[in-house]
Design goal:
Elements (H helix, E strand, L loop, with lengths): L3 H15 L3 H17 L1 H8 L5 H15 L3 H12 L6 H16 L1 E8 L5 H15 L2 E8 L7 E5 L2 E4 L2 H14 L1
Parallel strand pairs: 1-2
Antiparallel strand pairs: 1-3, 3-4
Helix pairs in contact: 1-6, 2-3, 2-6, 3-4, 4-5
Length: 178
């Protein structure tokens, strides 16, 4: 069952794709949410039923102009304000990003390795993940020395754990059970 946020995200994705400005709209929506995090009063004002629609539109218009954001974002914010869905904006943004990834055949991966990977290693790992998923992979890399060696990859909801720490834990558990 689709959530309300997913319906709004689908509509925004339709418009952004048709206008061929998915990257800009995605960035602008993230930036707008960052503004709301910096100034929670803005979110309260834009979501308050006590503030007139015209005043909310004026505030949103001013913020969009200050950000030099697109008309697409402005129009979308007007709809969200008019339908009283400002409280869902962060959830809409996440669903929007997921919808764009789905439509564009992108899979996101999080890679945590014991040490920073070299560019060649990243390229090989990304190629292997693309073969596994059948999609273009955009990976984000982090290091965690506690892994001792190897890496842990989260690709969608699947986790591939090739860390030395986990292998040692499995060996210990097997030895204790024998």
């Amino acid at each position: 069952m689709r959530t309300i946020a997913q319906h709004y995200a689908d509509a925004l994705a339709d418009v952004a794709i048709s206008e061929k400005n998915t990257d800009a709209v995605s960035r602008e929506l993230r930036d707008f949410l960052a503004l709301l995090r910096e100034s929670p009063q803005l979110g309260i004002l834009l979501g308050s039923p006590a503030v007139s629609r015209a005043n909310k539109h004026a505030v949103a218009q001013a913020l969009v102009e200050r950000m030099k954001a697109s008309r697409t974002l402005r129009n979308f914010l007007f709809v969200v304000i008019d339908k009283r869905r400002m409280a869902l904006l962060a959830e809409i943004q996440q669903a929007f990003e997921a919808q764009l990834d789905e439509r564009q055949g992108v899979a996101r991966a999080s890679v945590v390795s014991a040490k920073d990977l070299k560019e060649g290693e990243k390229k090989k790992l990304r190629a292997a993940l693309e073969r596994l998923s059948g999609r273009r992979v955009e990976a984000h890399y982090h290091s965690d020395p506690a892994l001792i060696g190897g890496a842990v990859v989260r690709l969608g909801s699947t986790i591939y754990d090739g860390s030395v720490r986990t292998q040692l834990e499995r060996l210990r558990a097997r030895l204790e059970s024998e």
